[in-house]
């Protein structure tokens, strides 16, 4: 058993034992009152010491008897002052120990209340039900994640065709248009006149796409005019 336990269980006066001993608050209040009283006593003794020193200086060697009496009183006051210092240290240590004990008691009491509250809360809890609940929560979280992923994915409606096949078909269409344009192109007829006997310097002929296109358009117009003339002659 510790000294503090012996003090609380076996110490104290008969009156304290009869009423179960003082409370920690009462004991702390008494200790603080004692500290305050001793502090005032310290101030008084320090004042008396200063006064006796002044008396000793005043008499000095002129009145050695009075000076020595003043120094003796100063020594007694200093001794009492040292005793009070020791007493205050002891009381301070006791007060701190009592405060810590009271704090620990309150802490333990509150921890006990908390433990009882936790026990009461857990009375109606079944670990098996908790495991099932957590499993259900996990499954629902997975389902919610799958739904979120499905909603956030880019819609692919109408994208089921192969893009390479579409590009190949487009190239075929372009080639067909190009071939059709080449078939409609009509080159000018070869002249039937014979070449001169003496070779001469003939100008170079450079055919360009605009020239070919112009020739084709002129031939088409001439053919259309012939058709119109034939149709007019038949109608008349």
TrEMBL record:
Q: Where is the composition biased (Gly residues)?
A: 9-21
GO cellular component term, pick one: cytosol
Stretches for region Disordered: 1-25
Q: Which InterPro entries match?
A: Snf7_fam
Keyword set includes Nucleus: no
Q: Which GO terms describe its biological process?
A: late endosome to vacuole transport via multivesicular body sorting pathway; protein transport; vesicle budding from membrane
Q: Give the way it sits in the membrane.
A: Peripheral membrane protein
UniProt subcellular location: Cytoplasm, Cytosol; Late endosome membrane
Name the Pfam families for this protein. Answer: Snf7 (PF03357)
Q: Does the keyword Membrane apply?
A: yes
Keywords associated with the record: Coiled coil, Cytoplasm, Endosome, Membrane, Protein transport, Transport
Similarity comment text for this entry: Belongs to the SNF7 family.
This chain belongs to the protein called CHM4C protein
Provenance organism: Daphoenositta chrysoptera (varied sittella)
Classification lineage: Eukaryota, Metazoa, Chordata, Craniata, Vertebrata
């Amino acid at each position: 058993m510790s000294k503090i336990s012996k003090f609380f269980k076996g110490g104290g006066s008969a009156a304290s034992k009869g009423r179960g001993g003082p409370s920690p608050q009462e004991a702390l209040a008494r200790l603080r009152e004692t500290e305050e009283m001793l502090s005032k006593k310290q101030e008084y003794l320090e004042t008396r010491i200063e006064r006796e020193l002044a008396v000793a200086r005043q008499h000095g060697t002129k009145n050695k008897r009075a000076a020595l009496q003043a120094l003796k009183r100063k020594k007694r006051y200093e001794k009492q002052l040292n005793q009070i210092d020791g007493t205050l240290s002891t009381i301070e240590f006791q007060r701190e120990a009592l405060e810590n004990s009271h704090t620990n008691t309150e802490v333990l009491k509150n921890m006990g209340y908390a433990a009882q509250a936790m026990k009461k809360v857990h009375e109606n809890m079944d670990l098996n039900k908790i495991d099932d609940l957590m499993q259900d929560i996990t499954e629902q979280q997975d389902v919610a994640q799958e739904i979120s992923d499905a909603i956030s994915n880019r819609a692919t409606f109408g994208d089921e065709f192969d893009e390479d096949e579409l590009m190949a078909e487009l190239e075929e269409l372009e080639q067909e248009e190009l071939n059709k344009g080449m078939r409609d192109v009509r080159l000018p007829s070869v002249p039937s006149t014979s070449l001169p006997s003496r070779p001469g310097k003939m100008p170079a002929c450079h055919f360009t796409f605009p020239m070919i296109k112009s020739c084709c358009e002129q031939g088409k117009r001439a053919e259309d005019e012939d058709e119109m003339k034939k149709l007019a002659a038949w109608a008349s």
